Amino acid sequence: MSLDAVLARIDTDLPQATERLLDLLRIPSISTDPAYKADCDKAADWLVRDLQSLGVEASKRPTPGHPMVVGHSGGEGRHMIFYGHYDVQPVDPLDLWDSGPFEPAIEETAKGTVIRGRGSSDDKGQLMTFVEACRAWKAVHGALPGNISFFFEGEEESGSPSLVPFMKENADELRADVALICDTGLFDSRVPAIVTSLRGLLGEELTIEGPDKDLHSGFFGGVAMNPARVLSRIIASLHDADGNVTVPGFYDGVAEISDEQRAQWQALEFDHDAFLGEVGLSELAGEQGRTALELMWSRPTCEVNGMISGYTGDGFKTVLPSKASAKISFRLVPGQDPFKIRESFRAMVHELLPVDCTVVFDNHGASPGIAMSTDNEAFDLARAALSDEWSDPAAYVGCGGSIPIAGHFKSILDTDAMLIGFGKDDDQIHSPNEKYDLESFHKGMRSWARILDRLAG
Amino acid sequence: MSLDAVLARIDTDLPQATERLLDLLRIPSISTDPAYKADCDKAADWLVRDLQSLGVEASKRPTPGHPMVVGHSGGEGRHMIFYGHYDVQPVDPLDLWDSGPFEPAIEETAKGTVIRGRGSSDDKGQLMTFVEACRAWKAVHGALPGNISFFFEGEEESGSPSLVPFMKENADELRADVALICDTGLFDSRVPAIVTSLRGLLGEELTIEGPDKDLHSGFFGGVAMNPARVLSRIIASLHDADGNVTVPGFYDGVAEISDEQRAQWQALEFDHDAFLGEVGLSELAGEQGRTALELMWSRPTCEVNGMISGYTGDGFKTVLPSKASAKISFRLVPGQDPFKIRESFRAMVHELLPVDCTVVFDNHGASPGIAMSTDNEAFDLARAALSDEWSDPAAYVGCGGSIPIAGHFKSILDTDAMLIGFGKDDDQIHSPNEKYDLESFHKGMRSWARILDRLAG
User: Fold this and answer.
1) Same domain, A316 and A428
2) Among B318, B337, B367, which residue terminates a domain?
3) Which of A216, A305, A429 sits opposite B311 (nearest CB)?
4) Which terminus of chain A has fewer Cβ atoms in its 10 Å neighbourhood, N or C?
5) How far is CA A323 from the centre of its chain?
């Protein structure tokens, strides 16, 4: 009965919960860009105040970067720590947004009602599903269930430089029986998912420098080394014709998935044509002979995230650029050593450098892929709770993205982490016109209420 | 005696001439960027007024783009038409300028006095050497020598879209006995040069489009086609390991230089180590087994002038970009057909496109390489006049840059063109901190006075 009252409260409070989320979405907390430092701080303050309104002992905790928000409900029973992040991705190209990225709004679309705006899905909307479930619980019962801690980060989209030091310094405070992380998606609109493996991320930026100034291509073209050509050759060398990454030792330690795993993923009947069609594509572009789920969940990758050189404005400028740079990310699976791969990648680049060119590397983070242990009974309890809320039973799945926090909970705090989220493939996170389905928000809150009901007992 | 008086007048008027040039340099007439349209117009007006002050019948002549300035002195004798351009290159990267590009100033440097600012060398400073020589002549003689026409363009740095139509429409007005073009350099600080061959320019911009929006590289990396990788592979394919351009048919019609030509260029004792050292390089990067002068003056090239894709701001963004684009220029030598090469380049790009990618091309001009005939006696007269002014005899040389106007004078007006200029290799034209040596400006004016003296007779 008590769970039903909480679910009913969530249903009636949905308009107010939505308004609160819009309020949070209006804060442009872009962590990677120093221009938005004050906004990150503002988002943290907003969350501290909101947790305090739930009776949670919450505070903003300084780091060398953006602050953490930590809160504790106190209480008895299983100690659960909930993690989400309040920072968001940059918004460019801004001209591809149909409305202001930080002017969030509820929109009716052909596919249903959505909450539009940067961070609506990644991760403010997801974070608030849990906070709102707690609010409803508190409204009905006067207190939160069990013993809940809150842990919100503001640097997830910029490599989390302060996360590990903070977790190490505050290990006793953050250790719990189970960690709950809401930064992933549904398998599809009917099937909720608990992620049991995640890819890691190695972020590298390289700048090739040649002539000590931009030159006139009429005089120096065909005589002087062109860094844009050198960079292109390096990028083109990172894959072979079959889509395999050519960095030496890249696949060391990468295991093939088990037949059982393969069968389980096949049973999900993932529609890869629809998945690709959604973004205007028709064919899988990665390693040959693998399914989309295998590629996304179990195979490592190398991608160019950005590159620039020379004149890129309107019109034409016959400059021979003095430098060229690219941002390159590697998605890693369990078994790969991010630091060895960084070393091997950099050695490969040096190997490809012609005379008169030098390279400067910037480090944008290195985290390994991780696989969860599902032995903790919380996994089966949460799976059952999710299955109650959604039309189809919940699935254990992999995730192509990188959420290093899950690995840190295990390695630093010896705390098992469950990744449960309600995002959809078409949420356009990291892209213009990001949205979060109102249904994801609503059923997400209800899902957490059900999970808390099972776990807090 | 009369020439000596003109030269003396140039010497005493140098400070005033310099002030007039600084005034013109303050106008940011960047032709390629629509934001500076009014400034291009302003520069044209400035020149019309200045020519009128010399008693020249001058006017601004509209085109679909930036206006032309045309003027006629009238008078008897050899009809000479002088060409220069009043538009300038863009200034980015702006942060590499030590002072404002359009706040020109006289600076003392270790290598002598320079006029600093965008356009000081390319081409406002050079253009004004001729105008100032005329001004001195007029001050001494009360009229300009011979029969001089002036023809100033405002679209030279943006592909000259209006030039050919304008020349065709006004052919009778612009036809002359000889054209004088001041947009090239000295061979070195002692040896003045008359350019007898120029490379042409084919400008191409290509945009590779893949997914219909930017994607999250965690989910789509290794699954979806990445246009930045496709573009890199295309650019890397444009040259073989020996630096030869691989576009099919690219070298069709390219002739080896004659032994006589090679000997003449060898005699110039070009110091390619110093030339490369000047820009921080040590080795020739183009086709193997050729000298720097051969590469610059007689060989065609393909260079990347700019490229961009994905996130290029501060920090890191794990986006899989939906498109990638590059600006690519080909420098062409006599015998190559720019239109055939454009067609072959585009076909090659289509050939390299994977499934799910499309390409859009933009055309940024196509002009062939040209070789002058030195049979016109004006060439030898000018060479002798230059040899009088400078410490060493003038040389007939090639030029790696593209000054299509020289070819247009011949093909449209049947008028031979002489390219005489006073720029230096270290002028940093098209780059930050462009400068023009005060000596180039001063001796440039004196050179034109001597050339006019010989040609007007």
Assistant:
1) no
2) B367
3) A305
4) N
5) 31
**Whether residues B230 and B166 fall in one domain:** no
Cβ separation B318–A213 shorter than 8 A: no
Contacts of B96 (CB under 8 A, 6+ apart): A213, A214, B432, B433
Using a CB-CB cut-off of 8 Å, the residues of chain B touching A225 are 281, 283, 285
Do the chains contact at A96 and B213, CB–CB below 8 Å? yes
Cis-peptide, bond into residue B192, ω within 30° of zero = no
The backbone region for A401, taken as left when phi is positive above 0, alpha when psi lies in -120 to 50, beta otherwise, is beta
CB contact under 8 A, B303 and A356: no
B10: confidence class by pLDDT, cuts 50, 70, 90: very high
What residues have CB less than 8 Å from A16, skipping those under 6 apart? none
User: Which of A204, A305, A336 is most worth mutating to test chain B (most B CB atoms within 10 A of its CB)?
Assistant: A305
Domain assignment of residue A267, yes or no: no
Cβ distance of B365 and A329 shorter than 8 Å: no
Do residues B455 and B378 touch, judged by C-beta distance below 8 A? yes
Q: Which domain covers residue A209, as residue numbers? A: 201-254+300-367
CA distance B27 to B45: 11
CA distance B107 to chain A (A): 20
Q: What is the CATH number for A11?
A: 3.40.630.10
CA distance B324 to chain A (A): 9
Q: Is there a single domain that holds both residue A218 and residue A191? A: no
Taking an 8 Å cut-off on Cβ atoms, the answer to whether B400 and A221 are in contact is yes
The verdict on residue A263 lying in a domain is no
Domain boundary among B314, B333, B367: B367
Yes or no, beta carbons of A305 and B310 under 8 Å apart: yes
Q: Which of B210, B232, B401 sits opposite A235 (nearest CB)?
A: B232
Q: B1 pLDDT exceeds 60?
A: no
Question: Is B92 within 8 Å of A432 when comparing Cβ atoms?
Answer: no
Rounded Cα distance between B440 and B449, Å, is 14
Inter-chain contacts counted by CB atoms under 8 A, chains A and B: 354
- Residue A279 with chain B: CB contacts under 8 Å: 211-213, 215, 220, 224
Per-residue pLDDT of chain A (457 residues; tens, 9 = 90+): 489 999 999 999 999 999 999 999 999 999 999 999 999 999 999 999 999 999 999 999 999 999 999 999 999 999 999 999 999 999 998 999 999 999 999 999 999 999 999 999 999 999 999 999 999 999 999 999 999 999 999 999 998 999 999 999 999 999 999 999 999 999 988 999 999 888 999 999 999 999 998 888 877 888 889 999 999 999 999 999 999 999 999 999 999 988 878 888 888 888 888 888 988 999 988 898 899 999 999 999 999 999 999 999 998 888 999 999 999 999 999 999 999 999 999 999 999 999 999 999 999 989 899 888 778 899 999 999 999 999 998 988 988 887 889 889 988 999 989 999 999 989 999 899 999 999 999 999 999 999 999 999 7
Distance from CA of B286 to the nearest CA of A (A): 4
Residue A269 lies in a domain: no
**Nearest partner of B410 among B375, B385, B382, B450, judged by Cα:** B375
Distance from CA of B226 to the nearest CA of A (A): 7
Q: How far is CA A420 from CA A113, A377, B80, in A?
A: 22, 15, 81
B378 and B359, same structural domain? no
Same domain, yes or no: B94 and B192: yes
Statement to judge: residues A226 and A313 lie in one domain? yes
Residue B129 lies in a domain: yes
Instruction: Please indicate whether, in this complex, the C-beta atoms of A312 and B307 are within 8 angstroms of each other.
Output: yes
Whether residues B143 and B84 fall in one domain: yes
| Runs of H (alpha helix) within A299-376 | 338-352
CATH number at residue B325: 3.30.70.360
Number of domains in chain A: 2
Do A311 and A231 share a structural domain? yes
- Tell me the pTM: 0.76
Percent of chain B having pLDDT more than 90? 78
Q: In angstroms, rounded to a whole number, what is the distance separating the alpha carbons of residues A254 and A338? A: 12
Both tokens assigned to B347: 């076909």
The CA distance from A61 to the nearest CA of chain B, in Å, is 23
Compare B310 and A159 and report the one with higher pLDDT.
B310
